[in-house]
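[worker-b] picked up task from shared queue
[worker-b] task type: protein-ligand structure
[worker-b] ligand name resolved to flavin mononucleotide; SMILES cross-checked against name lookup, match
[worker-b] sequence length check passed
[worker-b] input payload:
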Amino acid sequence: MAVQPSSPKCWNATPPSLTLIKMPTTTETFSDFLSLLDREGELSKISAPVDPKLEIAAIADRVGKSPAPHPHNELDRSPAASLGGKALLFQNVTGSDIPVAINTFGSYWRINQALGTKSLSELAERVQALVKPEIPTTLMEKMKKLPDLLKLGTFPPKSVRTGICQQVILEGDKADLNRLPLIQCWPFDGDLDSGQVFDPATCSKITERGSGRYITFGGVFTKNPETGDRNIGMYRVQQFAPRKCAMHWHIHHDGARHFRLYQKRNEKMPLAIVLGGESVLPYAATAPLPPGIEELLFAGFLNGRGIDLVPCRTIPLEVPANAEIVIEGYVDPQEKLMEGPFGDHTGFYSLADYFPAFYITAITHRKNPIYPTTIVGKAPMEDYFLGKATERIFLPLLRTLVPDILDYSLPIFGVFHNCVFVKIHKEYPYHARRVMHAIWGAGQMSLSKFIIVVDDHVNVHDEQDVLFHLFSNCDPQRDTEIVHGPVDILDHASPDLAAGSKMGFDATVKWPGEGKVRPWPKELEMDQKTKDLVKRRWTEYGL
Ligand SMILES: Cc1cc2nc3c(=O)[nH]c(=O)nc-3n(C[C@H](O)[C@H](O)[C@H](O)COP(=O)(O)O)c2cc1C
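[worker-b] inference finished, payload out:
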């Protein structure tokens, strides 16, 4: 097999033909990304021996909740915004000769580096430009538009014949998951006797039990058997045996949708789990793109260059040539395993339930690979920053569905699906209600359990400001809206799995036509003239 060496090159070098483009600083491989973090004082290397069972997770949890080395420059006003600690590289992991990297995306600065942007808002502007291309009129405007047009042409992935991800190829019995340093995150992960089971009655009948070890930071590559559309989703994978796992994809996600199509055809589903690769890939796997819009195209856009793909060795799929590790195999359309419980990003164990079985046919990796992983749990964790990236980057896309949204925020305590703050410029009675219902119909945002809508002078990134207006502007009976529908499958409070109620609060100033409204008082604010006077004379006061 021809071996293609890894290039340590970063994409901040400007190719001569694209001199007008300010290239992002994404990196080509995960190892290159770690080198960049190391150079910037954002990586701690740990040579002491550590146990992949719980110990790595406990260290990452503690470090992730400590101050981040670089200050953040985002809109986020929560105390979590300046946390994240350093990324960690464990070089001596018990039971494996492969080092483990964790918390690599776990701060605003690091996620910005991975996505090649100075700030998430700047990246959102690039997305905005794609969503709403304005017709340039003058030559100067055309020139300004050129970089974006050029970049559009570079999005598609490119098929190549070889890649570093196949420098070492392990097939058949050699494709043993025990060679990889899969971690256990929380004490009761995989423990069916802990009582964390969706249907306790079935528990006693379970003969095949999984381990507490999980792949937690892999991009799961699948293909729609009817259209050929590719999907990448980040789904956790529980190890059951050296070559057998359970796939935990939520029923609302595209991996599960692809699986249902294979089930209908009673065909085995080819699937690859990709670890590492271009620094944009882990984020792209988590991005809630609508079905049919390929994450690989989006990754190319973020990367400023299409992703190189190589054919898998044992399945009819292509995977990123620059990945550290690729796990190939098939999902059985008939067989299900009792997956979980698992300490989840909600801060609770998600209950064990049946999920499809995945059989490994090959593990390929580069020479001297690094194994990327993550833990989720009570926020802030690494996934907080991945979620915040989605919040910013998807604002322009969300606005194509619900243009009334000026801005929104997914506050840290809402663990993403539980709470959304939305800002609108109110134009007519019940405008806030219309926005709530539109959100409940918009992709993954439809799972939002509580929505709080505020007027345009409120800062949705400041929870004090939002809650002040919620509690003061709402009459509980008049200003709440309750609907029923699909909810996040991780919501343990919903009466049924994935089905329950959702609530909206109209915290805007009330207008006639929205129920009996008495004269509405003005909100307190000092007039500008007095503020200017005080500012001018401040030193005179001796304060
Ligand atoms: C660290 C992390 C772990 C995740 N684990 C899962 C998971 O186990 N199952 C799942 O369905 N979604 C999980 N998600 C969310 C999905 O990756 C995300 O919703 C993505 O948009 C799904 O992609 P899809 O719509 O293409 O399926 C996880 C997200 C993150 C950041």
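[worker-b] attaching auto-annotations
[worker-b] Residues 1-24, 149-153 have pLDDT under 50 and may be disordered.
[worker-b] releasing lock
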